[in-house]
Write a structure and sequence with these properties.
This protein has 322 residues and is of the alpha/beta class. It has eleven helices and 14 strands. The strands form four sheets. The chain has a six-stranded parallel sheet with strand order 3-2-1-4-5-7, with helices on both faces. A three-stranded parallel sheet has the order 6-8-12. A three-stranded mixed sheet has the order 9-11-13. Helix 1 links the parallel strand 1 and strand 2. Helix 1 packs across helix 7 and helix 6 runs parallel beside helix 8. The radius of gyration is 19 Å and the shape is globular. The structure holds nicotinamide-adenine-dinucleotide (NAD).
Length: 322
């Protein structure tokens, strides 16, 4: 029986992954942890944790007999650029703290996400291969490349069962995004539903790999259930949901909300987005653990319009807006 600790449980992905893990393993077997308390009551026990506090992390793991850790705490790409040192410290040291617990056999399995931000200008950006030149331009991307190397090292050297996915930009409606370069693809729906124009911080034709939250959560659960003998990647797997540009997303929203207007006012995030791939080759994930996305652009748009709140304050999701 798995006893699961989700670190960063109040985040955009954490709040949905925690609920999915609770329904799969039972609420009593999932402990949610974050530096900030959850905005709304949750289905699992919550513990307050700064993942950089190694003693507290160890105390929680022992007290709750944790077997599996899902480490989601991180500073994301856009936000990270204003605080490079603390971004590196959180993103890399949190992983080291967790991998050390696994090396000491205090936990059996670790999930840690990398990102398409690990790629860079020389990564074959049309369809980034599983094994590419990794030359990210952001501190966030650099921390993800370092994390991937650490995962592979702890697996090869110590046999740590660590599994990872390079998430594309994740679109969901239950919790606000945490300061990434693809956040526009959530805010745009809220503007459309409010009947307001949207000022997009990326250029109209900046195509990026994206994924709808239910696919991202299911991918995580499926990877963690996969036969370890079949997993040939211990750095991080490429997966793709769908790829689209702001213009393509706008066209799809306009099929449902015809008067919706978007203007394009690229800021510093445009440069970050331009250093990322337009798509990724996820054939290794498909071959090793049967990855298959279910949501294309039209299905994502249909579901987001039906469900996204008008804004996070008036319709609070699982955590306070950041
Ligand atoms: N959201 C995306 O589009 C996306 C894409 C690629 C990769 N990822 C990765 O997925 C993971 C989760 O991303 P997210 O979008 O949910 O991020 P988020 O910013 O929404 O959530 C991160 C959570 O971590 C918590 N946290 C921050 N510092 C902490 C600390 N010291 N101790 C404990 N908790 C702390 C925050 O309070 C927050 O609830 C990250 O590793 C991120 O790099 C996300």
């Amino acid at each position: 029986m798995s006893r699961i600790l989700v670190i960063g449980s109040n985040g955009q992905i954490g709040s949905e992954l925690t609920a999915a893990l609770a329904s799969e393993h039972g609420s009593a077997n999932v402990v949610a942890a974050d530096v900030t308390p959850p905005a709304l009551p949750q289905c699992t026990q919550f513990v307050s944790l700064d993942v950089l506090d190694n003693a507290r992390l160890r105390e929680i793991v022992v007290k709750h007999s944790i077997t599996d850790i899902y480490l989601l705490a991180a500073v994301l790409s856009a936000r990270g650029e204003s605080a490079p040192l603390s971004t590196w410290t959180l993103n890399v040291n949190s992983l080291l703290n967790v991998l050390e617990l696994a090396r000491e056999k205090r936990v059996s399995r670790v999930f840690w996400p990398s990102s398409i931000a690990a790629f860079g200008p020389h990564s074959s950006l049309e369809i980034a291969p599983q094994w590419a030149i990794m030359d990210p331009t952001t501190i966030y991307g650099a921390s993800k490349v370092a994390g991937e190397r650490l995962c592979e090292y702890y697996f090869a050297k110590f046999g740590v069962d660590v599994r990872s996915i390079r998430y594309p930009g994740v679109v969901g409606y239950k919790a606000p995004p945490g300061g990434g370069t693809t956040d526009y693809a959530i805010a745009i729906f809220q503007a459309a539903k409010r009947g307001e124009p949207y000022h997009c911080f990326l250029d109209a034709h900046t195509t990026l790999p994206m994924i709808y939250m239910p696919d991202a959560v299911r991918a995580t659960l499926e990877l963690m259930k996969a036969d370890p003998g079949r997993l040939r990647i211990r750095s991080s797997y490429n997966i793709l949901g769908t790829s689209f540009s702001p213009a393509e997303l706008t066209r799809s929203i306009r099929k449902r909300i015809p008067r919706f207007q978007v203007t394009y006012v690229p800021d510093f995030r445009q440069q970050i987005a331009q250093s990322w791939p337009r798509s990724v080759d996820d054939s290794q994930a498909r071959a090793d653990w049967g990855w298959e996305p279910r949501f294309d652009l039209e299905a994502l748009v249909e579901d987001m319009i039906a469900n996204v709140p008008l804004d996070w304050e008036r319709s609070p999701p699982a955590r306070a807006a950041s």
